[in-house]
Amino acid sequence: MSCFSGDPNFCPECGNVLPLPGAPDFIKCPRCEFIIPVQELANQVITSSVVFNPLEPMVSTGETEEDSELKGPVIDRRCSRCNKEGMVYHTRQMRSADEGQTVFFTCIHCRYQEKEDS
């Protein structure tokens, strides 16, 4: 007794995807060895379609360039200009791949920027 039924693309015993019919007069499931004669699939139309995600217009968040500077994790680092704690940082690979990253720090109070080669 079959566990699965319906779609001719799948094995009725284990649900595995069946291979396309070839030269032999049967289709053999590669998982459970179930054999189905090709004549059982005669006069059946198998269709497929490709669906792409629709293109959506870019939505502006209203964020300015100054606001984007202050995004990122806040760390306990003292600003060398205003001497207050709290800076955000981001990293970039500015030099060759075998050297460390460059870390850019921005003060959340005065927006002073520092960089550190690590």
Question: Would you kindly provide a written description of the structure presented here, covering whatever features stand out?
Answer:
- This protein is mainly β.
- The chain has 1 helix and 6 strands; from the N terminus they run ββαββββ.
- The chain has a 4-stranded antiparallel sheet, with no helix packed on it. Strands 1-2 form a two-stranded antiparallel sheet.
- A hairpin with a 5-residue loop joins β5 (102-107) and β6.
- The radius of gyration is 31 Å and the shape is elongated.
- The protein starts with 25 loop residues before the first strand and ends with a strand.
- Residues 75-115 form the TFIIS-type domain.
- It holds the Pfam family Zn_ribbon_TFIIS.
- Belongs to the archaeal rpoM/eukaryotic RPA12/RPB9/RPC11 RNA polymerase family.
Topology:
Elements: E1 26-28, E2 35-37, H1 65-69, E3 74-78, E4 85-92, E5 102-107, E6 113-117
Antiparallel strand pairs: 1-2, 3-4, 4-5, 5-6
